[in-house]
Amino acid sequence: MADSIIQIRDLKRNFQVGSEVVRALRGVTFDIEKGQFVAIMGTSGSGKSTMLNILGCLDQPSNGEYLIDGISVSKLSKDELSEIRNKKIGFVFQSYNLLPRTTAVEQVELPLLYNSKIGAKERRERAEEALRMVGLESRMYHLPNQMSGGQQQRVAIARAIVNDPVIILADEATGNLDTRTSYEIMALFQKLNEAGKTIAFVTHEPDIACFTSRVVMLRDGHVTKDEMVETKSAQAALDALPASDDY
Amino acid sequence: MNILNLVKIAYQALLRNTTRALLTMLGIIIGISSVIAMVNLGQSSQQSISDNISSMGTNLIMVMRARNVKGGGGVNTGASNVQSLTVDDVEAVRKYAKYVSAISPSVTASGQLVKGANNMPGTMQGGSPEFLEIKKYELESGVNFRDEDVRTYAKVCLIGQTVVSTLFPNEEPIGKEIRFGKIPLKVIGTLKSKGQDGRGQDQDDIVIAPYSTVQKRILAQNHLQMIYASASSEDVADLATQEIERIIRRQHGLSDDQSNDFDVRTQAEMLEMMSSVTETMTALLTATAIISLIVGGIGIMNIMYVTVTERIKEIGLRMAIGAKSRDVLWQFLIESAILSLVGGIIGIILGLVLSYFIAMFTNMPYVVSVGAVIASFVVSAFIGIFFGWLPARKAAKLDPITALRYE
């Protein structure tokens, strides 16, 4: 298990809502190996958002063990959690969460600004490199309102990979996009995965999950299914789509 | 976290909404510039008053007829009805005082000055030959009158530049005669220009004649309106004042329980009196300006609160990608500090320009209060941090999960 990026052991998370205790996660156990592309699936209320918050070190478990890159996060302070997020995690959100009136390259530089070890020159170089990886080398100085949804999500992905994280966490990253653009984004994730990135992709759509290599299904705070699946090529799916000027 | 990066983050955030940033600054700009302008103007007028008064002579002592002297039947009489000062008082002071270097009686009369076709209303100032020295007048041409002229009630006079230019537009005045009412006076000297005094009166609009001439030939009276004296130096002005008071009391035969029937004033007291008026004005205006500064600060706080609420999602994102609570706190503090500091600097420049123009148009000396500039700078930085603190703390306390999901 030396290559496990994520180790989760009997993870529980309870919320106190008024006098009631809501048990969002009731003992979850799984590992994510380096280089895996995992879909975390579940219906609304299954605990997948809570799972994502804990995976992303935005929240801490009530019980159980969570190790990221060998570091146990249960006992870490808020500032230490921020460090982990800054160095080891890349987030991609459903609504992109780009800063308004900020150029693409500045968006991508953002995580590095919170890392005092990186100078201005290196910051710019790495941001440009990340944008090249997502295919936006010609859009570096564009503002969010000058880009399509797919392009904005690519900027967000570039921002997630710029700090060279051990895992990329995507939260319904294709939820706001049409089918074609969703496939394009999935193709990009597959490309990044092939390049060695570990990706956890939270979604409720089975036809998106099929582009990953493993599906973890959550239901009522338990893992109900955890299996390797045959990866469908997003590029092939994209090619199979009818030409976009059909309608 | 690198402070430079934080400044960069704050700066970029401000640039995203320049109009709002400028409007927010406006409160501080107005506040600081009015503080600077008020303090500078206060100091300018202070300076102009003290310049003027010292041009009249800082060791000048004035003996005036007392106001509110109980006359017969307990009626308080005005100064003009008091006839307590006489030439004998002057002679007594001249004889006994040690700290008085010069002394002159003073009587004034108003009337029309006539020279040929030219005439003007004028004031005849009667004095001893020492009058010029005491009041810091200098001769431009001609000669001063002498004690001999005083004894003979000589019909001679010295005239100031305003009189020269009105009555003698095209000719040399020395040796010519002018008429004051019905009395012809020979001009024996002209005075150098002195400009306005502290109260805005033209000191060149003057005709000086021997006091005896004014007393006997014009006013037909024996008493004096005032006595002017010079202390031998500024340091002994107080001693000279006490001395004069003692001598004149004795001269007037006042017993210890009787109050003075005259007032002794020094120029320093006048200076204090007039300064205290401008000081009060300056303090009042500055207080108003400070209030507007506080309002400006509250404006910053208000906008920062709006900004924080508007940017909750951004704050959530920043936290998700690794900003610590204190990074967010600092970002917003720096944002409001930049707003108020830049506003402060613009305000300082504006205030300096403003007070320069006001000083120029009012003919006052332009004085820059370095203290006010430094204080304004410090205060505006403080305002940013003070009024930015609560909004910044609100931002820093946000939970990243709720902030990210905020709509």
Short description:
The complex is a heterodimer of chains A (247) and B (407). Chain A is α/β, with parallel strands linked by helices.
CATH topology name of chain A, in short, is Rossmann fold
- Low-pLDDT stretches of chain A are none
CATH superfamily of chain A: P-loop containing nucleotide triphosphate hydrolases
Mean pLDDT score of chain A, rounded? 92
Helix and strand sequence of chain A? EEEHEEHEHHHEHEHEEH
Helix-strand sequence of chain B: HHEEEHEEHEHEHEEEHEHEHHHHH
Strand arrangement across the biggest beta sheet of chain B: 4-5-10-7-9-8
Structural class call of chain A reads: alpha/beta
Question: What would the average pLDDT of chain B be, to the nearest integer?
Answer: 87
Unreliable residue runs of chain B: none
Quaternary state, please? Answer: heterodimer
**Helicity level of chain A, as a percent range?**
25-40%
Question: What report would you give on this structure?
Answer:
The complex is a heterodimer of chains A (247) and B (407). Chain A has 247 residues and is an alpha/beta fold. Chain A is built from 8 helices and 10 strands. Chain A is globular, with a radius of gyration of 18 Å. The relative contact order of chain A is 0.18. In chain B, helix 3 packs across helix 8 (237-251). Chains A and B meet through helix 2 and helix 3 of A and helix 1, helix 10, helix 11 and helix 13 of B.
